[in-house]
Amino acid sequence: MTSPASPLGEGLPADLDTTLAAAFFGFSAGAILFGIGIRQAYEYYTTTNKDSLGKKLIIGIACVLDTLHLAFSMNLVYNLVINMLGYTEAGMRLVWSLKALGSTQVVLIILVQGFYLSQIWRVSARANLLLEKWFSIAIQTFVVFIGVFALAVGVIFLTRLQTIDVVHSFDLGFEYIVYLGFGATAIIDCSIAGAMCLLLHKSSSGTIKVQGVLETLIQYFIGSGLLTSFASILCIILYVAQPNTLLYLGMELSVPRLYANSLLAIANGRQGLLNRLDESIDLHLPSGVFFVEPDRVSLVGAHLKDTYSPEREPKYPEHMVTDPFASPTSTRQRYIGIPLSDPFSPGSETKYSPTDSEGSKSLSRASSRSHTV
């Protein structure tokens, strides 16, 4: 029994080897990235974090959309293979899979871009004390413009996507939509990365720990923005190079994974950055600590002894104690003067010298009197 002719019977890719290779490697790379995303999602939801319910919901929706995109990718590759083997009934299912794949991809990309834009808005609103008012207003205006632009491009792409009836060699009208969609995505990603980096740089407080955290965030946004932009541009290049094949699918099957993983990476890295801000600084001070009491002077330290004991020879100059914070390589000796007046003798102006025997006896009498009282 002969199968009925397929609407795509004359529209099969000319280079089957290139088409199958692109679909296979693209799906394999997407599956690997999906596994990485699942690991990150598990880490995010099982570790203790103080994120709001709204943020957790956004990340959960992104994971669901990423899973749906993988399922539609699997269905597309399956129908592509059996269609090439002669089962022309799979042709219509192939077109349906491409429509579902593209729709899921657009929604996921807009969701992630909207999340980043909302973060830019929040940072610009909270850092108004560190930013000039005109700069904060400019950033918020930029957020509104980019958000409306991304939403408009997404709606146009989704509307035109539902009108296709082939999976390659699109008509000229839809080719322009492909260029618009991927090109606008690259521009938006670069704009978001640039705005976030500029905002973080302007919001720096100057402290070492905060500066280190901000530099890490800047490097992350630059890397993620360039990566997703490069992937979108590469989709355009592959389609322009071979429009009669499905070579562009090699990148399109992996692009949404990059967005989902970037969102999960920044969510999981937040706690580590907060821990870096909470790190304490240890001050390594010398071991010699001085205590001055009414009737005695104590030097606490393993190498220090009581220099005011009558039976010991004094080590320090009169009324002076060596500064423990002085550099050992310093060419000049610094001292801290400590008056040893008896506070129990009202109006007494006598200062005791550790080298004066009378002073030592007076110091002993003052000590005995204080113990007697």
Automatic annotation (TrEMBL):
Domain of life (superkingdom): Eukaryota
Biased composition (Polar residues): 347-356
Annotated Pfam families: DUF6534
Keywords attached to this entry: Membrane, Transmembrane, Transmembrane helix
Region (Disordered): 308-373
Biased composition (Low complexity): 360-373
InterPro entries: DUF6534
Every DUF6534 domain range: 186-271
Chain segments annotated as transmembrane: 20-38, 58-82, 94-117, 137-157, 177-200, 220-240
Keyword Membrane (UniProt): yes
Listed Basic and acidic residues bias regions: 308-321
Protein name, entry field: DUF6534 domain-containing protein
Species in which this protein is naturally found: Hypholoma sublateritium (strain FD-334 SS-4)
